């Protein structure tokens, strides 16, 4: 007679997985019907996670972490600066279209930020952190499959994702053209976002593909398949942002990986490129042309024409900006640089906070890597840094915060970096060893270097 295993109760990781799945799989153009502003289901879930996080901070029985954490602090500061900018912008008259956009934008940006807080404090163990990361990989693989079908056959599966209570804000899917190829967007809002989302998932998929065999798992082929699919998705997006992000992520990984894996990665990458050249003739040449002809590309020159106009706006509102969401592309022209857009709309305070969001997120992961002696944890922390680097660089090449899926991944990964740091420190405490402080670590390093052999 066998006894049934007890079912695991839903926890913060379970809710985070649902949040990630809804944010990536539900097409970005679908919003909730009957609401005056364009709100997506993921936004509602993000606000719900934030509400649960707030309630859990009022009690000690729900298992939510409390106390200082680098990622938690930077997320909280980011929220404060967004509220400060919103208050500064709306204290005086705003045109109705700008006020409506500001109202919707503050809701959407707060939703992803509080979701990041909930993930940082609510995902407590290494196993649950990995569950969320695996969910990101699997959901992104599904998105990449949709994009590849759009690219190869002009088959847009998002047209059949008709969900009750939702309606599209645009007529159909988003498929553009570049050279002789289609540029798919899958469920995202633009081919650039599609490419960046796939590029973010590639280091995560590579991590699980390379480590599955080392950990004795039988799922190595599944992760290699996910890696191949999201890699193809990044390439067929025909996006410079995706290619630059992949290059930076590869640099981060190759610096931190052991020598044997570096060789394996280079061989796998070379084989993949050769295969892509034969399967999709002309694709690699088109990707090369994106950078070879960059000086004659009108899309590049158009990105620099906004500097003269924006400099005037920055001088008028230097510290808190003119208001997030108030610089409407249809009215003032697009800003294809999130750092510039943040400077215009959130001022220097908002810009420093956005930069700190990526820097502190990477720091939390690197801090967890330095504290842990577990090879798998150290590799996972490096992978988080690589994925965050894709988004940090992407923010310089397109208006990242205007696209919901890329923005969601940014805050989820920052939250998971903080959660990983908490988990590593909790392991130190459980083993009776206090984790060394940053000052102690630096002092020990300097002391060791000063000792003569």
UniProtKB/TrEMBL annotation:
It is a multi-pass membrane protein. The chain crosses the membrane at residues 12-32, 38-58, 70-89, 101-119, 131-153, 192-210, 222-238, 244-259, 266-291, 343-365, 377-395, 401-421. Pfam families: Wzy_C (PF04932). One of its GO terms (cellular component) is membrane. Its main location: membrane. Keywords: Membrane, Transmembrane, Transmembrane helix. It is found in: Membrane. PANTHER family: LIPOPOLYSACCHARIDE BIOSYNTHESIS PROTEIN PA4999-RELATED, TEICHURONIC ACID BIOSYNTHESIS PROTEIN TUAE. This is O-antigen ligase-related domain-containing protein. It comes from Amycolatopsis bartoniae. The lineage of its organism: Bacteria, Bacillati, Actinomycetota, Actinomycetes, Pseudonocardiales.
């Amino acid at each position: 007679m066998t006894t049934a295993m007890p079912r695991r109760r839903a926890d913060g990781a379970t809710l985070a997985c649902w949040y990630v799945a809804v944010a990536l799989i539900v097409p970005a153009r679908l919003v909730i019907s009957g609401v005056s502003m364009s709100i997506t289901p993921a936004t509602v879930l993000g606000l719900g996670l934030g509400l649960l996080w707030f309630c859990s901070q009022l009690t000690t029985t729900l298992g939510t972490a409390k106390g200082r954490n680098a990622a938690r602090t930077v997320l909280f500061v980011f929220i404060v600066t967004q509220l400060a900018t919103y208050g500064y912008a709306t204290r005086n008259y705003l045109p109705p279209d700008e006020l409506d956009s500001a109202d919707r934008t503050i809701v959407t940006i707060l939703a992803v930020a509080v979701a990041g807080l909930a993930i940082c404090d609510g995902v407590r163990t290494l196993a649950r952190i990995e569950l969320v990361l695996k969910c990101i990989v699997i959901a992104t693989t599904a998105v990449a499959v949709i994009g590849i079908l759009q690219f190869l056959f002009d088959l847009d599966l998002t047209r059949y994702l008709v969900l009750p209570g939702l309606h599209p804000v645009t007529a159909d899917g988003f498929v553009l053209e570049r050279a002789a190829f289609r540029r798919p967007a899958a469920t995202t809002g633009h081919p650039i976002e599609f490419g960046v989302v796939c590029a973010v998932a590639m280091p995560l998929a590579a991590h699980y593909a390379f480590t599955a065999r080392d950990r004795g798992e039988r799922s190595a082929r599944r992760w290699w398949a996910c890696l191949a699919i999201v890699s193809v998705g990044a390439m067929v997006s025909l996006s410079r942002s995706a290619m630059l992000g992949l290059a930076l992520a590869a640099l981060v990984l190759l610096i931190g990986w052991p020598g044997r894996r570096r060789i394996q990665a280079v061989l796998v990458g070379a084989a993949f490129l050769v295969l892509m050249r034969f399967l999709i003739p002309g694709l690699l040449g088109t990707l090369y042309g994106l950078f070879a002809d960059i000086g004659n590309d009108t899309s590049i020159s158009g990105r620099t024409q906004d500097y003269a106009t924006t400099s005037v706006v920055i001088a008028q509102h230097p510290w808190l900006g003119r208001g997030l969401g108030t610089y409407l592309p249809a009215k003032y022209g697009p800003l294809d640089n999130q750092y510039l857009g943040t400077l215009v709309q959130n001022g220097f305070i908002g810009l420093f906070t956005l930069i700190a969001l990526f820097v502190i997120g990477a720091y939390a992961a690197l801090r967890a890597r330095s504290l842990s002696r577990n090879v798998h944890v150290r590799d996972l922390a490096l992978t988080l840094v690589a994925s965050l680097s894709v988004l940090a660089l992407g923010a310089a090449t397109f208006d990242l915060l205007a696209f919901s899926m890329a923005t969601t991944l940014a805050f989820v990964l920052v939250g998971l970096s903080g959660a990983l740091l908490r988990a590593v420190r909790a392991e130190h405490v459980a083993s009776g060893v206090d984790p060394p402080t940053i000052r102690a670590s630096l002092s020990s390093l300097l002391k060791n270097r000063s000792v003569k052999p």
